[in-house]
Write a structure and sequence with these properties.
It is built from 10 helices and 15 strands. By secondary structure, the protein is α/β, with parallel strands linked by helices. The chain starts with a strand and ends with a strand.
Length: about 325
């Protein structure tokens, strides 16, 4: 089968389209004939091996799985001996490790049937980013009607879903993005847009009940100043920071500080769960969330997609078609 393969950590220049063996699913896995795969920051972390502390799980000297990709959508080709939820021919989406390939293995527990009203490309743009936004706006950080929510990185993959979810919950949403993303963010439900190239999140008169920070570049004291005294900050992922720890040092400070102040500061690393995929499926089929796709690339141009992700500030998600 054709796949995008990487033998060592580094830039997109190391990604190669090669013929490789078709994976064989384990007892609790599904073999998916991949039709489309999402491109997000998680793939960049797998490619670069950064932050370096993550290599304890990804592979110390080189990637354990040389095939890139993390989420996708396609048709079930075969199922493992213990899989009862799916059968060959089912259209599915979810966490497919090594999804930049014609076929990929996936844990059955991290898949769901594809939303009936979405294309494979749209469905591939939904799993990681959609689950992250859903988990960011859950529990204490789920906004109540009328509360103010600030989404930083509102035009990106996670941000576009966070804006839609917060608006669906009845919040007054402000999105932070560059000037090119303003129209998109408004169309997704944001009442206000802050152009980060011209103003700061603390410039206006309002403070926010919930802040979802997808960018990872703003210092913790600045984020806290933008919060109400009892507000909730959700720091998504570990962007920014040093090569070894990434943004984790800021995240750790937030978690350690939170018990001693009135504000609730949390760090979120998304976990793939079928229950969240099913929730996203329902929301998509009801028309309450819609994937925003910047552009699609054929499998052979996956390196170009990763370069665009790193430097181009995509509006929504990038998707690989297979």
């Amino acid at each position: 089968m054709k796949a995008i393969v990487q033998d060592a950590y580094g830039s997109a220049d190391l990604l190669e389209l090669r013929d490789t063996d078709r994976p064989v699913p384990r007892d609790d896995e599904v073999l998916v004939e991949v039709r489309a795969a999402g491109v997000g920051p998680e793939v960049w972390h797998l490619m670069t091996g950064r932050p370096y502390v993550a290599r304890a799980a990804l592979g110390l000297r080189k990637p354990k799985n040389p095939v890139r990709g993390w989420d996708g959508a396609g048709r079930v080709e075969a199922v493992g001996a213990k899989v009862t939820e799916f059968k060959p021919g089912d259209e599915v989406f979810g966490n497919c490790e090594g999804s930049f390939a014609e076929y990929a293995r996936a844990k059955a527990a991290k898949l769901a049937l594809k939303p009936a009203n979405l294309t494979f490309e749209q469905a591939a743009a939904l799993p990681v980013s959609g689950m992250t936004a859903l988990q960011a706006l859950s529990g204490k950080s789920r906004p109540r009607p009328g509360q103010r929510v600030l989404v930083i990185g509102a035009s990106g993959g996670v941000g576009t879903y966070a804006v839609q979810l917060a608006a669906m919950y009845g919040a007054e949403v402000t999105g932070v993005c560059g000037p090119a993303g303003a129209d998109l963010v408004r169309s997704l439900g944001a009442a206000h847009v802050i152009d980060y190239t011209r103003e700061d999140i603390t410039d206006g008169p309002h403070r926010y009940d919930v802040i979802v920070d997808n960018a990872g570049l703003r210092p913790l004291p600045l984020l806290r100043r933008a919060l109400t005294p009892r507000g909730t900050l959700v720091i998504v992922g570990g962007e920014g920071g040093t090569g070894f720890f990434g943004g984790m040092s800021r995240d750790i400070r937030a978690v350690l500080l939170s018990p001693f102040i009135g504000q609730n500061l949390r760090n979120l690393i998304s976990i793939a769960r079928r229950e969240d995929l099913l929730a996203l499926k329902d929301l998509a089929e009801q028309g309450k969330i819609t994937p925003a796709i910047d552009r699609t690339y054929p499998l052979a141009e996956a390196p170009t997609a990763l370069r665009h992700l790193e430097k181009g500030h995509p509006l929504g998600k990038l998707v690989i078609t297979i």
